Amino acid sequence: MATIVSTPTQERSSTRTGWPYLGKLAISAFGILLCLVTIKFFTEHLLAPRNMGLNGALVQRNLDLLLIGSSHTRQSYDIRLLEKTTGLSAFALAYNGDDLKTMSQIIDYLVSRPDRCPRYIVVEAYSALLGRKPDLQDPRYFFDAPPALKMRIIRTYLSEHRRPSALLDVFDLVVNRGNEAIVTYPVNSLLLKRLAYRGGPTGIKTPGVSAEQFSHFTSDATSGQPDPVQLAALYRIIDIAEHHNISVIFIESPLPKPVSSDPKIQALKADFREILEAHHLRYINGDLDFPNSDPSMFEDNNHLSAAGREKFTLDVSADLKTWIASLPKNRAAAISR
Amino acid sequence: MLFNSLQFCLFFAVVTTLYYALEWRWRWKMLLVASCVFYMAFIPAYIFILFSTILIDYFMGMMIAKSTGRRRLIYLQVSIVSTCLVLFVFKYFNFFGMTVRELQNLLGAAQDFPIAHIILPIGLSFHTFQSLSYVIEVYRGRQEPERNFGIYSLYVMFYPQLVAGPIERPQNLLHQFYEDHRFDLSNFAYGLTLIGWGFFQKMVIADRAAVYVNSVYNQWSIHSGLSLLVATLLFAVQIYADFAGYSCIAIGCARVMGIQLMTNFNHPYFSKSIGEFWQRWHISLSTWFRDYVYIPLGGNRVSVSRHYVNLLLTFAISGLWHGANWTFVIWGTYNGVLLVIESYFHSLGWRYPRNLIGNILRRTVVLVSICFGWIFFRADSLEAAVGIIRRIATDTSFSLSSVEFAVLPFSGDNTAFAVGLVTCLLIAIMFMLEIGAELNFRKVRGLLHYSLSYQFATTLAMFEFIMLFGVLRASAFIYFQF
After folding, report:
1. CA dihedral sign of residues A299, A300, A303, A308
2. What is the DSSP-derived secondary structure letter of residue A175?
3. pLDDT 10s digits, B37-66
4. Can you tell me the distance from the alpha carbon of A76 to that of A201, in angstroms, rounded to the nearest whole number?
5. How high is the pLDDT of residue B370?
6. What span, in angstroms and rounded, lies between the C-alpha atoms of A250 and A123?
7. B263/A contact by beta carbon, under 8 A
8. CA–CA separation, B83 vs B89, rounded Å?
9. Residues in contact with A243: Cβ distance below 8 Å, sequence separation at least 6, in sequence order
10. Which end of chain B, N or C, is more open, meaning fewer C-beta atoms within 10 Å of its C-beta?
11. Where does the pLDDT of residue A3 fall: very low under 50, low under 70, confident under 90, or very high at 90 and above?
């Protein structure tokens, strides 16, 4: 701190080497860090919010409808309106950038907790994610996960990213992320209660975009071919649904027309439909019967505005009621729209 | 090679170990090689540009010392012109070209002035000024020319201060390379503590503030006046913590080896006047401009109007030094105007009341004035700067939702409030320690100086803060672009 203090006092004669000092510093520094991080690793999920995310889903009892996906899901459903129109209890478990790989992990974990497993699951079928390489985009998922799931996340990440910097990514995730939420927990938890209703947005009215911005929208799809890991995750979800008798429906929320008409998106949508039809699972394409040429319905190139969310929630409520009514006791219905 | 990278940590450990392992006669050679490696980690070929300026100034220094009369001035002018030419070509050519094109456009002529695709060599503005400082001091007779080319090269490219200062004077630095610095634990511990503090300022304070500032300033037109105001205040914190942090790391790295670099920052935001601010901010550059531009122009030992012109000119050039854009020139000139206004009111005998309110008022006025200038420094263009100022002044809406939107850029999701609150707390910790040092509180000074245990505890605390709250992805220091 050259700005805080001036020259140091020479208080003792020089020693031959700084290694003992450095050694003590390093041991103390890493020892304290290890203690803090260990405590954090085993307890931070207890501080996770109860009105959103994985912890929020786990505290729900007798939950009817779980909507799982990315921010695409979170922005697409007005949970309060959905509950009112369907008469079902609902919860949106959404993390930014959540892909099929992450969703399969979460669903796998939920079915291991039968007392917390919902009756119906709506899986996000956002086609752009099918073509994307798996990645952990939202560190809050790791923060919210119990220790066993955390270990699984780390193992999966390291096995998928075989490069030296993956260890630094894990270090960053385990040591550095989420500490703000821990430090500000008493105040932050009160604020978070206000920001979400059962995982869905509340309060902030997101406006639509201008016609000019709308016309410049492009899709986020990096490839028109399904990523092998995402594809495997999709099959895993289907497998879990079949073996645990869980009713699953796949819904793709509306996309703006310039994005939806992208050939890569169209190709991925077709792949989704084909796979789900082969397994007799219901797939709803949100673009149909939705005014996806109207800029006021969209906040950006893949999220609905408040107006779009309300419209889509009303539309999909009817579809959900129809689907649930058509369900045999133990199997999902088999018609794709 | 950024300071905040694992690569640098390894480099620093190796260089420092070798420094003490080698006999003192070999140390400067090792440091020179290490500095070359450090510089070449950016763009290797640019080492030739650096060495060409070193070569010219080394020989001009020798020639100045051997010559008499008018010849000395000619050699000095050759050195200044050649150094400034390098600076012009690599840093200002495109700016000059764009300005000419705009003039051509205004006159209705074809915009055909050539634009080159040149990457600015890292640290160019700093090491050229350091070289010029050497040649000028030799000319003034205040410094003997350095006969050892290797030592002179090391003076210019000593790795801790090569890319972003402090801009050293030859009287302070050159002789230190001849000294046998034996290992001293208090120097070593103090150096490590300085490094720890520097990384705390950079990674915990500056990089956190940068997330918000970049998010808002890069898309200023969609943000409210409140967000822009918060971003401006955070930029004031960011630029201070970033640059002072870099300086601390540089000074600490040198101190670990027993080499003392000059202090570059002295709690500038506690200044009671604009003049005092510029005595505390980027001290090495301010004193450079004072000694080599302002005083040769006449300083304040001329008529009042000429004094004011000297101030404006000096600060305009200082602004231009910071970057090849009219926003920097305006920022520099604006600070010159502030000094002129201050000087004028001082000449009229106007003073702030000598009480607590007066003290708070004068510091607030200085802070607000400086923060206003930072808008021009940070904005991408003049148009953006004007737009930001206009929006801050006119968009005075303050509601719960406007506050929610203002907090959002801290992270873009529902962690924004937590991140924002922690960022503010960490900034408060930094400034509380600075207030303590400013008020000369013994305990704060003791954090670094009075015992090894204090230094040990401080370094340890900084490490934990950096690991837990720092932005661990390496990002460049702001002043690297200059």
Report:
1. positive
2. I
3. 999 998 898 899 899 999 999 999 999 999
4. 9
5. 96
6. 5
7. yes
8. 10
9. none
10. N
11. very low
Q: In the prediction, which pLDDT does A135 show? A: 80
Structure tokens at B349: 């005998």
* B3/A229 Cα distance (integer angstroms): 37
Work out the widest C-alpha separation in chain B, in whole angstroms.
Answer: 73
Spell out which residues of chain A touch residue B13, defining contact as CB-CB under 8 Å. none
Residue B3: per-residue pLDDT: 84
Judged by CB atoms closer than 8 Å, whether chains meet at A4 and B469 is answered as no
pLDDT the model gives residue A65: 93
- Residue A145 one-letter amino acid: A
Cβ-Cβ contacts under 8 Å for B241 (sequence gap 6 or more): B201, B202, B205, B206, B209, B430
Burial A153-191 (b: 16+ CB within 10 A, else e): bbebbeeebeeeeeeebbebbbbbbbbbbbbbbeebbeb
Local structure of residue A284 (DSSP, 8 states): E
Q: Rounded to the nearest 10 degrees, what angle do helices B47-66 and B124-139 cross at?
A: 10
**What's residue B447's pLDDT?**
61
Per residue in A137-161, pLDDT (tens digit) is 788 899 999 999 999 999 988 988 8
What is the pLDDT at residue B157? Answer: 93
| Catalytic status, residue B282 | no
Which CATH superfamily includes the segment(s) A46-326? SGNH hydrolase (3.40.50.1110)
Q: Which residues of A touch B182 (CB under 8 A)?
A: 14
Residue B240 φ/ψ region, left for φ over 0, alpha for ψ in the -120 to 50 degree band, beta for the rest = alpha
Q: What is the mean pLDDT of chain B?
A: 90
- Dihedrals φ, ψ of B145, to 5°? -65, 140
Question: Which residues on chain B are in Cβ contact (under 8 Å) with A181?
Answer: 415, 418
Q: Do B183 and A1 touch (CB under 8 A)?
A: no
Task: Name the residue among B186, B244, B445 with its Cβ closest to that of A10.
Answer: B186
- DSSP state at residue A45: G
**Residue-level pLDDT at A168:** 87
* Range A181-185 average pLDDT: 92
Any idea where the domains of chain A sit in the sequence? Answer: 46-326
Banded model confidence at residue B448, pLDDT cuts 50, 70, 90: low
* Burial status of residue A113 (CB atoms within 10 A of its CB: 0-12, 13-18, 19 or more): exposed
- Say yes or no: B473 contacts chain A, CB-CB below 8 A: yes
Angstrom distance (rounded) from CA B82 to CA A254: 63
Query: Residues with Cβ < 8 Å from B470, sequence gap 6 or more?
Result: A176, B199, B200, B203, B204, B207
* Chain A CB within 8 Å of residue B441 CB: no
Query: What is the predicted ipTM?
Result: 0.85
CB spacing of A17 vs B417 below 8 angstroms: no
Closest residue in A to B434 (Cα–Cα): A4
pLDDT at residue B138 is higher than 50: yes
**Residue type at position B359:** N
pLDDT at residue number A2: 37
